[in-house]
């Protein structure tokens, strides 16, 4: 297994490890057919990656008269010197194999030119590099490239990438392959030994450069570049079309090829965002309010901890926002910069769309589409990722603070519990805390919603409420506080027609040691409803 770093330049460090990869879904909702990877999808990066790659690159470069710098840079840009195992992210796109990320007809032609079997070119590092070098050499001959001129190989690198989108192709060559050549890169094994290295060489790519123009910011995320995809449609009307989950994908390929594919109308797929390997750039392709085609599955809450079962049977595209990441589900780790940037993006999405910031609402593509997808893979750092999202959003629970959600599964049973008396109905309008809420009609009945919380000692605490506002809500919803002995500490009233989707202070009370409670009463004039969503004790 290898870890990656770049001692030569900060920019190159940004180019290190990366991953990308969900599969997009077409508007017909027909899931893409499963692909059979050449190796188990549970392989981790490094499990089949050689510890010493430099000799393999040098030998192939000499054998096929290809610059070693170019061969290494193409491999690094495509895979971060990771043996891609042939999983698919997007329907219609061939799977990438090996250190060179060879696909489809290119893989077969390269294997034939190198005199190796297609299977060897897929699974053996040396054979894969030789196949890539043989193909580059063949393309150079056809293009009449001056082989001693490193910059003149740029069109050959562009052709090998298979990227058809002209802007994405130019980005791949100039800000990918030749940026690595100019800045250098190093991959280290876990024991600190060098797995692969590329000394920086100053050279200019002799091919069409990315267009020089002011890049418009994404309409929903100012830190992104707007690269609109035509592959989207309107979300369905109603709560089932409101964004309530974020899906994390890996592209199963490099960043430029990923957004170039998603921005191409012929691909029939898209995602809302793509994050590059280093975290230095984010592309937005679809507005968050629109429905991108990034997952080919209908929702089944049994795959997601029993959460949001009311969405069962609907297309997961309807209510999700998709983030692709440059890289592979099979890699052993993800670059810190990519995780940081992605967490900031997820925070922004969750905050703007009132999405719960937990692993049931920010979820792996492979969890919701397990029959054909595994991304972002077993090594995506879920715990630290969710923690970073909450930290960036300022929602990390302070020490001693207790949140009681109306969904018991979200509560720490040792400190918080929720119960209902009488007839209450589950609600799902946007803006709730945790996982939904409950509502009930006001009437002269003692059938409250009760928020219990445990305090080890007598303490003075402030209680905040959270609800989904609406015009039919009570303007004087009564929250009654009781200590552990059942003594009434006082009543706070709240206008639930306003201030929805945020914490609202209800009052400060002197609670006792043990299980205290706050009850939301229904006992008032008929004609409105009260909302039992969440309480915070701080």
Instruction: Sum up the overall morphology in one term.
Output: elongated
User: Helicity, in percent?
Assistant: 10-25%
Number of helices: 12
Q: Mind telling me the CATH class of the largest domain?
A: Alpha Beta
| CATH H level, superfamily name of the largest domain | Peptidoglycan recognition protein-like
Number of individual domains = 3
Structural class per helix/strand content?
Answer: alpha+beta
The total count of strands amounts to 26
Named at the architecture level, the CATH assignment of the largest domain is 3-Layer(aba) Sandwich
Write down the overall mean pLDDT: 88
User: What portion of residues belong to β-strands?
Assistant: 15-25%
Low-confidence stretches: 1-47
Radius of gyration: 27 Å
The name of the CATH topology of the largest domain is Lysozyme-like
Biggest sheet record: 6 strands, mixed
Distance between the termini: 45 Å
Strand order of the largest sheet: 7-11-10-13-9-14
């Amino acid at each position: 297994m290898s870890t990656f770093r770049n001692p030569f330049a900060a920019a190159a460090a940004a180019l290190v490890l990366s991953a990308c990869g969900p599969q997009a879904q077409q508007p017909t909702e027909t899931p893409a057919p499963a692909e059979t990877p050449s190796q188990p999808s549970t392989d981790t990066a490094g499990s089949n990656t050689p510890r010493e790659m430099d000799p393999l690159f040098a030998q192939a470069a000499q054998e096929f008269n290809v610059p070693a710098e170019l061969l290494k840079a193409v491999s690094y840009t495509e895979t971060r010197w990771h043996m891609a195992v042939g999983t698919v992210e997007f329907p219609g796109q061939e799977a990438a194999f090996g250190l060179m990320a060879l696909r489809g007809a290119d893989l077969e032609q390269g294997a034939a030119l190198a005199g190796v079997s297609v299977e060897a070119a897929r699974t053996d590092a040396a054979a894969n590099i030789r196949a890539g070098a043989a193909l580059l050499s063949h393309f150079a001959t056809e293009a009449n490239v001056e082989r001693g001129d490193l910059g003149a190989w740029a069109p050959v690198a562009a052709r090998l990438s298979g990227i058809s989108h002209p802007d994405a192709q130019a980005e791949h060559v100039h800000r990918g392959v030749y940026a690595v050549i100019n800045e250098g890169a190093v991959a280290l094994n876990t024991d600190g030994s060098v797995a692969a290295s590329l000394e920086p060489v100053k050279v200019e790519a002799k091919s069409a450069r990315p267009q020089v123009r002011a890049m418009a910011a994404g309409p929903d995320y100012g830190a992104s570049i707007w690269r609109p995809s035509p592959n989207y449609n309107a979300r369905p009307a109603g709560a089932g079309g409101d964004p309530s989950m974020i899906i994390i994908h890996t592209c199963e390929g490099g960043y430029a090829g990923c957004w170039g594919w998603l921005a191409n109308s012929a691909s029939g797929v898209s995602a809302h965002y793509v994050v590059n390997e280093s975290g230095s750039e984010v592309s937005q392709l679809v507005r968050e309010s629109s429905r991108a085609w990034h997952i080919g599955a209908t929702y089944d809450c049994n795959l997601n901890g029993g959460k949001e079962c009311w969405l069962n049977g609907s297309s997961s595209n309807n209510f999700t926002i998709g983030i692709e990441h440059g890289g592979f589900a099979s890699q052993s780790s993800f670059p810190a910069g990519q995780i940081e940037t992605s967490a900031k993006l997820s925070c922004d999405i969750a905050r703007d769309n009132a999405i719960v910031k937990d692993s049931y609402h920010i979820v792996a593509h492979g969890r919701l589409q397990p029959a054909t997808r595994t991304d972002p893979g077993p090594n995506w750092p879920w715990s630290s990722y969710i923690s970073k999202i909450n930290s960036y959003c300022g929602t990390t629970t302070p020490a001693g603070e207790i949140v009681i959600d109306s969904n018991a599964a979200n509560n720490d049973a040792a400190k918080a519990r929720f119960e209902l008396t009488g007839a209450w109905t589950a609600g799902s309008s946007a803006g709730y805390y945790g996982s939904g809420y409950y509502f009930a009609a006001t009437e002269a009945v003692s059938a409250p919603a009760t928020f219990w919380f445990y305090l080890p000692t007598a303490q003075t605490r402030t209680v905040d409420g959270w609800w989904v506002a609406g015009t039919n809500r009570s303007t004087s919803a009564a929250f009654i506080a009781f200590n552990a002995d059942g003594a009434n500490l006082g009543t706070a009233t709240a206008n639930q027609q306003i201030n929805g989707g945020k914490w609202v202070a209800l009052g400060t009370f002197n609670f006792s040691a043990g299980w205290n409670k706050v009850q939301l009463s229904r006992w008032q004039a008929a004609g409105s409803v009260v909302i039992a969503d969440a309480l915070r004790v701080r």
